[in-house]
Amino acid sequence: MRRRAWLAANLCMLATPALTTFAAAARTTPPPPAQVVIEAYGDSTTLGITCANGHCGPQPQNAVSYLQDELQTHHGDQVRVTNYGVGGTMATQLRDGTGNRRAGPTAGLPWQARLAASPAQIVLINYGINEVMQNQTPEQFYAAETTLVKTARALGKQPVLQTSNPLPDNRLNARLAAMVTMTRRVAIEQQVPLVDQFAYVSGLPDWKTLMSDGAHPKPGLYRLKAEQDYQVVEPLVRRLLDGTR
């Protein structure tokens, strides 16, 4: 009788640390989110500008809206993608909060403050074209994108970098290629996902016919770009919804 009591007491003592560890793990493991929020930041090619008949303007058929449609086809309303693209802007402006203040209620805030107030778990970052147009150096672009990525990760967000689509003008496109090299470098150094739209679009036959002007795709090319985005973003969404981040 005394032996059975001794065994029971010792088994209880052995089980207690394991149960305590399990309970602690249960408390520290966050549940899967009810909804995955994605925010897309970038220039006019993120906003979705297309030109036709001498007029350029944002269109509902853009890469961000196509990406949301595709994600919601597979995951329903558990995924929401918000477009914060602003025409004519650069990565330095997003970093410093000096871009168009109409792009959301926190658009005038520096990147760190803006993201701290954001519910997004994933942020897409697409710049490069206006850096060429504004004669910014590749080194300045590299520094800005590095800060954007590091800040996002420090705040618990998953950054996804995107290279710009190519430009039909060969001279401008050569300068854009230097910016693209910087984006690829940041993705490697910071070990974050990359959607290499520049390489993808450049490899399409007659891709220049899919452009509406010297910088902006037609809706058909926006859809193709969204398919590339989906290949990178959907696994991230699935992991979040499964609680395996």
UniProtKB/TrEMBL annotation:
Pfam families hit by this protein: Lipase_GDSL_2
Source organism, top-level taxon: Bacteria
SUPFAM superfamilies recorded: SGNH hydrolase
Keyword annotations of the record: Signal
Name of the protein: SGNH hydrolase-type esterase domain-containing protein
Positions of the SGNH hydrolase-type esterase domain: 40-223
Record's signal peptide: 1-23
Family annotation (CDD domains): SGNH_hydrolase
Species in which this protein is naturally found: Paraburkholderia metrosideri
